[in-house]
């Protein structure tokens, strides 16, 4: 019977976790579940953590499973809100059981990050990036790279392309940009949250790609700016449509956002904007919310949070390397949030 | 000629023994290496906060995995709720009732079921529980782990029930005690130790499962307050942290892995030490 | 045998009390139902996967298995790269694990000094209990860097003339996936083989010793020769595990759906693509294709496991324990 002595503490342990849990359910703290983009995960997790101080009766559980996942799970209504970096396609929107709203939150940039000895500052233009990701430029000392980076010592090493293995809005912004600079890319690969990559290996999430690039000497990948900054990964300067090599910074993204055209339903692309100092590979990120909320209590809390995020939360964006929405857009978004019924 | 042949045979004998020893050492080497690296990279982060605090938002250091540890125990509790009764009763049927033909098929199916990759269970429960319930939940996670426990427990229970001497059953029946009460009060009670062992081993096995939880339990950054909500689990958290680029999360992943592996190893070693006599069958 | 005798005896009820029969009947039926649940679970799994994949089955038909493109944007989805990756990584794993496991099992049953057998067996059982995700964590941060810095360059310079060992070295690769699977299936093959070898009758060994055979010769001729079929069953059981390994493989294989001759190139497996893409497949066809991949995986693992169980059951009888 000695084994019983092992089981008893185990059962007791589970019970003491389950016990208060069951008892607690009457006065249950509400949990609102969301899933989707990894791109804004750093700011969302900050918001949800801060929001506990604003309203302690509700918790927002956000799992960064990728934008594709965010779109799919909100369509299947397995979560209360979705999040995506790419706007949903008309075909997918048509599948929604009720009207889905796109609530833009912040804008960010995709950066080209790399792992080279000493990590020198690189400069690249769009067509070069396309050919690296097409698998046409395979060596770091390729003449086209050398020509744009005079004075930088580029090694005779293989370029290891790292891309996302999951459906992702970061990917959407990236291939949206590549498609906008290359007809070949547009026809062969196209736009989407996950595409058929001509070259390279896959990592899961912004985290996975950044992790791989850090691990592999000679690797190059694309991640969201905040990830690169937090992990001290180098970011290439990219040539914009005005012909300038621009570093991905808050200012250059804000400039890009300011020059982008934003339609009524907030579904817009902002790659390759005309601004002189605009960083060309930037995009907005959205929360996906049903206009008619099924659960009145959850709907109310969700709306309160959305209002807080747009009014107060936006001010936290800059410290995490996201560009906040311009005031005019913010006003439009708040108007839209008012239309949510619960 | 025959002498050199003999020497060659002797040499080959020694050589092959050495090769076999080398293979055995190579086989257990990863265990040592895994433990070594887990302790080296994880022990520093196993502190009070690790067991008592929630994870911090991205980029802030500190925090812990308290919710994931609790989540794993809750999931195991739910799994046991499903897996133990079904598994043990199934084992009772195999051992006490049933024609040998049917039993052969049941055993066969249970063994095949054991070989089904755990990720498949994840999809099935996603389609069966998550989609209709409109949400990821602790229930879904518990159900998936419980389903995986059924064939495991069924086979081990059957095995220990068969070790109960038949005289016990006969004596009880001779006293006029009905068969089902004989089974419950005499047979099961006698075999209790073995059954508990089997249950513990099954729990230890599913405690480390990650793949089926990806689309069922889903993960949760906070405490779980309702079994219909998503829930954190230690292996899930380890996976998410392991593939992240944050050094702080890596440290936590190592610490989480260390704690999980110690728990599983403790159960395995404990069970084997306590039931040594049963496992020491003569060769 | 005694049990069978007892059973016939028990089946004649000593008394005919209705109430008693009622209790017995309920108990027996309930336990029968629970035992039959294994069939229900198998059927349910098959049904759910088939149901989920009907869209893909309809759209792609058999071409799905032969299609080598995995393009969610254009919805050109073929499973060949994943089938290839699963087969190759499992083959690598078997190539490494089989000789090691059988040698270890032989060592444990035939050659090792008595005092060493118990702890060694325990270590192997503990290795079997290490969760996949923990091995994956160790794989990413310890094994893969070591492979990239040391083993792979060595292989490249020594065997670089083979297409298997050409091309850029990433670390994460088909070979890394194969090695991590090998570590995971070694304990299974070893402990099943050990059971098999233990069930070889002592008479076999004694006869060979009597002929003047050395220990190794006894093992090779009398033991291994006798146990061949059972050992084959153990290997097939290991293969079944290898095919379905998910987390550790996903973490080190590189997740790229491509068919490359080089083992240094990243690959993708059936199980990993489900783990990575299942929650995020945006279109119905894409999701359905993932269900179909699950169906393929289920079909293959069931076939392999049925084969393994048949081999083991005809060899070992009831002596072979179920493996946790």
Task: Describe the overall structure.
The complex is a heterotrimer of chains A (342), B (283) and C (324). About 3% of the residues of chain A have low confidence. In chain A, α12 packs antiparallel against α13. With 342 residues, chain A is an alpha/beta fold. In chain A, β9 and β10 form a beta hairpin. With 283 residues, chain B is an all-alpha fold. Helices cover 75% and strands 0% of the residues of chain B. In chain B, α4 packs across α6. The two termini of chain B are 38 Å apart. Chain C folds into two domains: 39 residues; 262 residues, MetI-like fold, CATH 1.10.3720. In chain C, α2 packs across α13, α5 runs parallel beside α8 and α5 packs antiparallel against α10. Chain C starts with a helix and ends in an 8-residue tail after the last helix. The relative contact order of chain C is 0.15. The N terminus and C terminus of chain C are likely disordered. Chains in contact: A-B, A-C, B-C. At the B-C interface, α1, α3, α4, α5 and α6 of B face α1, α2, α5, α6 and α7 of C.
Short overview:
With 283 residues, chain B is mainly alpha-helical.
CATH superfamily of the largest domain in chain C: MetI-like
Q: Write down the Rg of chain B.
A: 24 Å
Widest sheet: strand ordering of chain C = 1-2
The figure for the number of domains of chain B is 2
Please give the count of helices of chain C. 13
Number of domains of chain C: 2
What fraction of residues of chain C sit in β-strands?
Answer: under 5%
* Average predicted confidence as pLDDT of chain B: 90
General form of chain C: flat
- Termini separation of chain C comes to 27 Å
Major sheet attributes of chain C:
2 strands, antiparallel
CATH architecture of the largest domain in chain B: Orthogonal Bundle
**Secondary-structure element order of chain B, as H and E?**
HHHHHHHHHHHH
For the report, how would you describe the main beta sheet of chain B?
none
Mean pLDDT of chain C: 87
Unreliable spans of chain C: 1-8, 317-324
Q: List segments of chain B where confidence is low: pLDDT < 50 over at least 5 consecutive residues.
A: 279-283
């Amino acid at each position: 019977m000695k084994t019983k002595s092992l089981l008893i503490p185990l059962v007791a342990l589970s019970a003491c976790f389950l016990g208060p849990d069951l008892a607690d359910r009457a006065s249950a703290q509400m949990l609102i579940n969301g899933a989707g983009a990894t791109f804004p995960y750093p700011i969302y997790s900050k918001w949800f953590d801060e929001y506990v101080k604003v309203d302690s009766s509700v918790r927002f559980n956000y799992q960064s499973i990728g934008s594709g996942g965010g779109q799919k799970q909100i369509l299947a209504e397995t979560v209360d809100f979705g999040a995506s970096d790419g706007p949903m396609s008309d075909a997918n929107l048509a599948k929604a059981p009720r009207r889905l709203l796109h609530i833009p939150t912040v804008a960010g940039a995709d950066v080209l990050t790399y792992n080279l000895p000493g990590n020198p500052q690189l400069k690249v233009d769009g067509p070069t990036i396309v050919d690296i990701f097409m698998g046409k430029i395979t060596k770091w000392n390729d003449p086209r790279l050398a020509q744009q980076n005079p004075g930088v010592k580029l090694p005779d090493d293989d370029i290891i392309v790292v891309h996302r293995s999951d459906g992702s809005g970061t990917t959407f912004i990236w291939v949206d940009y590549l498609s906008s600079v290359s007809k070949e890319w547009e026809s062969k690969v196209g736009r989407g949250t996950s595409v058929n990559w001509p070259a390279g290996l896959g990592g899961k999430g912004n985290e996975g790609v950044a992790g791989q690039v850090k691990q592999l000497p000679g690797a190059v990948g694309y991640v969201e700016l905040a990830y690169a900054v937090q992990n001290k990964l180098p970011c290439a300067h990219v040539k914009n449509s005005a012909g300038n090599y621009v570093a991905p910074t808050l200012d250059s993204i804000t400039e890009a956002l300011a020059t982008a055209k934003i339609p009524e339903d907030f579904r817009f692309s902002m790659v390759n904007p005309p601004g002189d100092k605009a960083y060309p590979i930037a995009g907005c990120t959205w929360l996906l919310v049903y206009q008619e909320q099924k659960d009145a209590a959850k709907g109310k809390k969700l709306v309160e949070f959305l209002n807080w995020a747009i009014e107060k939360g936006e001010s936290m964006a800059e410290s995490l390397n996201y560009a906040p929405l311009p005031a005019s857009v913010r006003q439009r978004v708040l108007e839209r949030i008012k239309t949510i019924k619960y | 000629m025959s002498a050199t042949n003999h020497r060659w045979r002797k040499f080959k004998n020694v050589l092959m023994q050495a090769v076999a020893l080398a293979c055995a050492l190579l086989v257990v080497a990863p265990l040592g290496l895994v433990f070594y690296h887990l302790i080296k990279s994880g022990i520093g982060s196993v502190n009070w906060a690790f067991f008592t605090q929630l994870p911090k938002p991205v980029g802030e250091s500190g925090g812990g995995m308290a919710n994931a540890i609790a989540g794993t125990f809750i999931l195991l509790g739910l799994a046991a709720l499903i897996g133990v009764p079904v598994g043990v009763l199934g084992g009772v049927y195999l051992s006490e009732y049933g024609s040998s033909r049917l039993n052969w098929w049941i055993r066969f199916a249970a063994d095949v079921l054991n070989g089904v990759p755990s990720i498949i269970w994840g999809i099935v429960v996603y389609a069966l529980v998550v989609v209709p319930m409109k949400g990821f939940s602790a229930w879904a996670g518990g159900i998936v782990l419980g389903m995986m426990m059924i064939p495991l427990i069924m086979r081990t229970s059957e095995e220990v029930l068969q070790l109960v001497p038949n005289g016990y059953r006969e004596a009880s029946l001779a006293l006029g005690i009905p068969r089902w009460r004989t089974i419950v009060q005499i047979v099961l009670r006698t075999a209790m130790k073995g059954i508990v062992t089997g249950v513990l081993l099954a729990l230890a096995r599913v405690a480390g499962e990650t793949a089926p939880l990806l689309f069922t339990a889903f993960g949760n950054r906070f405490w779980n307050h309702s079994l219909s909500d998503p829930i954190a689990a230690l292996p899930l958290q380890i996976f998410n942290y392991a593939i992240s680029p944050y050094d702080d999360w890596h440290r936590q992943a190592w610490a989480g892995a260390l704690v999980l592996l110690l728990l599983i190893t403790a159960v395995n070693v404990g069970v084997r030490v306590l039931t040594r006599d049963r496992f020491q069958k003569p060769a | 045998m005694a049990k069978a005798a007892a059973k016939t005896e028990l089946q004649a009820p000593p008394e005919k009390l209705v109430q008693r029969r009622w209790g017995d009947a309920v108990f027996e039926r309930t336990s029968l139902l629970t035992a039959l649940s294994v069939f229900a679970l198998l059927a349910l799994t098959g049904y759910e996967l088939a149901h989920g994949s009907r869209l893909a089955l309809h759209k792609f038909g058999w071409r799905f298995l032969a299609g080598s493109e995995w393009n969610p944007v254009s919805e050109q989805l073929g499973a060949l790269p994943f089938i290839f990756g699963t087969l190759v990584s499992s083959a690598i794993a078997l190539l490494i694990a089989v000789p090691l496991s059988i040698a270890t099992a032989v060592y444990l049953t035939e050659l090792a000094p008595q005092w060493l057998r118990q702890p060694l067996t325990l270590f192997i059982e503990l290795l079997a209990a290490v969760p996949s995700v923990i091995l994956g964590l160790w794989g990413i941060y310890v094994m893969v860097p070591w492979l990239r810095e040391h083993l792979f360059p060595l292989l490249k310079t020594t065997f670089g003339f083979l297409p298997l060992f050409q091309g850029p070295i990433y670390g994460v690769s088909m070979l890394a996936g194969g090695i991590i699977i090998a570590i995971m299936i070694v304990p299974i093959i070893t402990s099943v083989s050990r059971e098999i070898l233990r069930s070889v009758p002592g008479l076999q060994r004694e006869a060979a010793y009597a002929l003047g055979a050395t220990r190794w010769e006894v093992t090779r001729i009398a033991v291994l020769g006798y146990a061949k079929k059972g050992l084959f069953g153990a290997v097939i059981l290991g293969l079944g595990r290898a095919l379905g390994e998910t987390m550790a493989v996903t973490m080190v294989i590189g997740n790229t759906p491509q068919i490359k001759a080089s083992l240094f190139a990243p690959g993708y497996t059936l199980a990993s693509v489900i783990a990575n893409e299942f929650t995020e497949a945006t279109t119905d066809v894409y999701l359905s294709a993932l269900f179909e991949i699950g169906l393929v995986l289920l079909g293959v693992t069931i076939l392999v496991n049925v084969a393994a169980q048949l081999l083991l059951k005809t060899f070992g009888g009831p002596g072979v324990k179920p493996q946790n």
